Amino acid sequence: MPELIAPTTRLHTAWLAARADWGPGVHEDGFGLRPEDEVDSPEGFAAWVARLTAEPGSVCRWIVEDGQVLGGIALRHGPEDYVRVFGHIGYGVRPSARRRGLATWALGRMVAEARDLEQVLVVCEDGNTASMRTIERNGGVFDGMYGTLRRYLIKTR
């Protein structure tokens, strides 16, 4: 059974395996990874995890099962400009763990955690039908396009 947990340094090797599953140069949505983050060394990974867990206005969780990191999801309350473009919630599931309903499950859990907001904005690339279905299964209502991004609103209450 999967669980959502706070980022932790004890899963460094498991997280690196998840990143390798995505492949080089691919963005892992939901992990809050920035280009300047160095996550290969234990020290760099620890610094990144410390930033994730202390970042104001953001809640990051990893989708973990049997010691494997299967994906990540983040709830963002700000900054407002960033949320307006990329949404309140971003998520990603590693390729080898897809088609199991993990993204739908994790998004539902994170929407429940966002009860302090009346609704959340979730976006996905136009044409990403798996993500569109995930959002719609959680009550997402299409709210228009922003460039190549489809915008969905989900009521939290």
UniProtKB/TrEMBL annotation:
PROSITE patterns: GNAT
Segments traversing the membrane: none
Entry keyword Transferase: yes
Domain N-acetyltransferase: 20-157
Pfam families referenced in this protein's UniProt entry, alphabetically: Acetyltransf_3
Keywords for the protein's UniProt record, in alphabetical order: Transferase
Domain of life: Bacteria
Database matches in Gene3D superfamilies: 3.40.630.30
Keyword rRNA processing attributed: no
Molecular-function annotations in GO: acyltransferase activity, transferring groups other than amino-acyl groups
Signal sequence extent: none
Name of the protein: Putative acetyltransferase
Source species: Saccharothrix saharensis
